[in-house]
């Protein structure tokens, strides 16, 4: 793969799986998370597998809502490894509560982490990606990106904001070669808020119904290896991409039905981008 990536929210769940998949594919990866204990454990686990060199996988405590902290992390990564090819924002704060019962500070924190973390990463990586000729900014999509759910008003607002950001910024980055995308898991995954200890107590039969985060991470590897100008502004889903790769290989002939659960949305975005002035 030969890429350099920073993954937020990599201490557990999908973020961990994405970072692990990228490392296995040969990328240098900086894993970040607010939970230092989780972070240290998963970094040690990836290194212990022996598939990557210890110096090519690192962990760094990071609050994605802190613009200065994100800037420092990206600057450190570029200083040490010379570039940043992908900023994948899987970090999230997700309390589930009715709008009338959610403290305003919690609502704002959902936005600051989930949406702000993507914006902060874009600002921090912008100059380096332009200088090197391109890069990928990737947020995590879900059903909440396109629909509404009870107890998820803040979370749905944040996910919708990521989609608007990707659609609009993709138009502005066409000349810079910086791709802005979102990707959902496209398969059932463990609840986002579940810790490692909580996961260990879940019955095996229930866990078996959830997709392997590292397997889903392979779809993010695929996207990070695409030319940045090819798919910017689009929303993907990992499950369909993996199914397509299994059938046709990674260089498959592109079609919306092969890469997302929402092909009509993808077609509409492609049409808007193609018709947009300039």
Query: What level of helicity do the residues show?
Result: 40-55%
Compute the number of strand runs: 7
Radius of gyration: 18 Å
State the CATH topology.
Answer: Rossmann fold
* Mass-distribution shape: globular
Strand percentage lies at 5-15%
Largest beta-sheet details: 7 strands, parallel
How many domains is the backbone divided into? 1
Which structural class matches the secondary elements? alpha/beta
- The CATH architecture can be named as 3-Layer(aba) Sandwich
Number of helices: 12
- Mean pLDDT over all positions: 94
What is the rounded distance between the termini? 33 Å
The residue ranges in which pLDDT falls below 50 over 5 or more consecutive positions are none
CATH class: Alpha Beta
How would you name the CATH homologous superfamily?
NAD(P)-binding Rossmann-like Domain
For the biggest β-sheet, the strand order reads 3-2-1-4-5-6-7
The run of helices and strands is EHEHEHEHHEHEHHHHEHH
Task: Give a quick rundown of the structure.
The chain contains twelve helices and seven strands. It has 278 residues and is α/β, with parallel strands linked by helices.
Description:
The protein is built from 12 helices and 7 strands. With 278 residues, the protein is an alpha/beta fold. It has one domain: Rossmann fold. Helix 4 (104-114) runs parallel beside helix 6. The longest helix is centred in the middle third of the chain and has 20 residues, at 153-172. The chain is globular and about 50 Å long.
């Amino acid at each position: 793969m030969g890429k350099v990536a920073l993954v937020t929210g990599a201490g557990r769940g999908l973020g961990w799986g994405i970072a692990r998949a990228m490392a296995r594919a040969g990328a240098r990866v900086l894993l970040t998370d607010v939970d230092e204990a989780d972070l240290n454990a998963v970094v040690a686990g990836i290194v212990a597998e022996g598939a990557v060199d210890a110096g090519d996988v690192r962990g760094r405590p990071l609050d994605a809502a802190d613009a200065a902290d994100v800037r420092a992390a990206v600057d450190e990564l570029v200083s040490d490894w010379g570039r940043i090819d992908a900023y994948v924002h899987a970090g999230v704060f997700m309390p589930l509560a009715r709008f009338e019962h959610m403290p305003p500070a919690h609502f704002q924190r959902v936005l600051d982490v989930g949406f702000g973390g993507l914006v902060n990463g874009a600002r921090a990586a912008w100059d380096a990606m332009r200088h090197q000729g391109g890069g990928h900014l990737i947020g995590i999509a879900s059903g909440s990106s396109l629909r509404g759910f009870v107890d998820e008003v803040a979370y749905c607002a944040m996910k919708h904001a990521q989609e608007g950001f990707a659609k609009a910024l993709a138009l502005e980055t066409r000349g810079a070669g910086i791709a802005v995308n979102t990707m959902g898991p496209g398969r059932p995954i463990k609840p986002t808020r579940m810790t490692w200890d909580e996961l260990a107590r879940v019955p095996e039969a229930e866990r078996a119904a959830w997709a392997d985060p590292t397997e889903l991470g392979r779809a993010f590897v695929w996207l990070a290896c695409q030319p940045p100008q090819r798919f910017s502004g689009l929303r993907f889903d990992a499950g369909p991409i993996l199914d397509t790769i299994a059938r046709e290989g990674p260089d498959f002939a592109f079609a919306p039905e092969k890469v997302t659960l929402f092909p009509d949305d993808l077609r509409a975005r492609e049409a808007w981008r193609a018709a947009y002035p300039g």
